[in-house]
Amino acid sequence: MERQETAEARDRAGAASTGVVDDAPEGARSETVASTPAGVEGDVRSVVSGALPEGEEAEIELRGVSKLFQSRRRETLALTDINLGIRKEEFVTLVGQSGCGKTTMLRILAGLIQPTTGEVRIKDRPLWRGNTRDEQALRQLGLVFQDANLFPWYSVEDNIGLPLQLRGVDKKQRRRRAHELGELVGLQGFEKSLPRELSGGMRQRVAIARALSYDPEILLMDEPFGALDAMTRDKMNMELQRIAGATKATVVLVTHSISEAVFLADRVVLLSARPGRIRSITPVKWSRPRQLEVTAEPGFQDTVVDLRHQLIEDEERLARQGQGVSE
Amino acid sequence: MRKLIPWISTIASIVVLVIIWKLVIALFDVSPFVLPQPEDVVGGVRDLASENTFWSDVRVTLVETLVGFGIALVLGIGLGTLLGRVAWLEQAMRPVIVASQVVPKVALIPLFIIWFGFGITSKIIIVAMIAFFPMLLNTILGVRSVEEGHRDVMRSLNATRWQTFRRLEYPSTLPYILAGMEVGIIFAVIGAIVGEYLGGDQGLGYQIVTSLNNLEAERLFAVIFCLTLFGFILYLAVVALKRFLIPWHASADTTQASA
């Protein structure tokens, strides 16, 4: 019910986003690294456009996307005026404080939520046509959630093969593919196990393998390792880099860990809350895949600290505005 | 070794029970009309098993239980699925469901006997009514408890309605339905027996009444023993079904207590 939209809501969200566009400086259309000095706090409505420069082709594109959630009691503008282009094989991380709409943004990318305004394009095809999703575009997307969301009634290999099963691929081929992917994500010997026999990290490996089973070119991950302990998490991040490299996937990953975001990403997109907007986009210069030593490089910690400052500023701004006021 | 523990404990508790039983009789000088000796009860069971009428009574009670339970199963799962999916209908029906739950259904049995006679029909209806509620409530719960995250997976894979039902909703609901069946089958046996001894001329419940009227404590105990065995076998059948249908579920796993 909550996700249902009315034409009225659409109009209102549209108005809200145009309002923001008016405030944004023209120059913000091109990719910029926001460097709002701590002193200029009045400029809270600044918004960064992440649209790629003219002529560059985007693998994933969000154009003027906004999302208004409506419930009986209140309306929440979760996202407004999101413009973002992501290049092929790029690794982009989304960070922001909780409630900033980063998960909403990922779910919009995944086609699980329809944006109130704006357009999502996957490989230059619109994801939505009216109220139905474009099958071709959807096939390019592999999804990994915070919970592995494995089906407990299927073995590891059947879980990995589920997407293929839904597409009518025969059992023998599914097995072969599950085996291949099991090898890729480090699950050899566990093909016949049930999900409940696996550790959290192993389950997440299965979830990644499942997302990769039909060879999507884009991997969307919502805090995939958020529920894991720190050690497993570091290890999984290394594995993820390897997997992303091996599959040449474009990755969009939501996380609340800034250092994780910087470590993994080509670009870190920082969202500010209420309503969710792109506050800054920070390129990270080291080539991928990276070794843990990168975190000790000069510049790495600076980037992390800078982003953390931006988050703190955002939190302070919200505190001043008073909680619960969305617009 | 671990697998042996339940067997050992079962035998041990039977031995302890028999010892206490015999002690009570010896210490308080209990009359055999009140509490017969265990070995006499065993003899009573042997006598019962050799009677032809006993086996026809077993058959009658079995038919009542199974047919009534079958009806409860079909109606409970059917209506439960509907109410679990259609929120407003469940809301509208809630007062009726709560009211019919609160009514002590055993108290309705005499009424059903007046309406449907002393024969097998009234017992089947009683069984169906009593076993229906655990089936209904568990099915509603099961249909509702399909995880949102799992739905997201199916949605992101653009699964059809049928695929979502077949691969997600059906297997998610099954453990709840089977839990309902575990309770339901026991309720069904109770319904059949109480129905029989409140108004009937055949069945194991009727055997209880006649043994009581003839003050045959031995036979009464023997019938109770047979009834326990009867309920136990039906319950085991449900558990076996559970192991067969949801071997992946923690509740069907005997090798470990918790996952």
Essential attributes:
heterodimer; A: about 325 residues; alpha/beta; Rossmann fold; six-stranded mixed β-sheet; disordered N terminus; B: about 260 residues; mainly alpha; MetI-like fold; 10 helices; about 80% helix
3D architecture notes:
The complex is a heterodimer of chains A (327) and B (259). With 327 residues, chain A is α/β, with parallel strands linked by helices. Chain A has a domain at 7-18 and 43-140 and 216-321: P-loop containing nucleotide triphosphate hydrolases (Rossmann fold, 3-Layer(aba) Sandwich), CATH 3.40.50. Chain A has helices spanning 7-23, 102-110, 135-138, 156-166, 171-185, 200-212, 230-247, 258-264, 300-321; strands at residues 60-70, 75-86, 91-95, 117-122, 125-126, 128-129, 132-133, 141-144, 218-222, 250-254, 267-272, 277-283. In chain A, helix 4 packs across helix 5 (171-185). Mean pLDDT of chain A is 80; it is low at 1-45. With 259 residues, chain B is mainly α. Chain B folds into 2 domains: 1-30; 36-252, MetI-like fold (Orthogonal Bundle), CATH 1.10.3720. Chain B is 80% helix and 0% strand. Chain B is built from 10 helices and no strands. Chain B has helices spanning 5-28, 38-50, 52-85, 87-102, 109-116, 120-144, 148-156, 161-198, 204-213, 217-245. In chain B, helix 3 (52-85) packs across helix 9 (204-213), helix 6 packs antiparallel against helix 8 and helix 8 (161-198) packs parallel to helix 9. Chain B is globular and about 75 Å long. Chain B starts with a helix and ends in a 14-residue tail after the last helix. The mean pLDDT of chain B is 89. The chains are: A alpha/beta (327), B mainly alpha (259). The interface between A and B is medium-sized, with 21 and 19 residues.
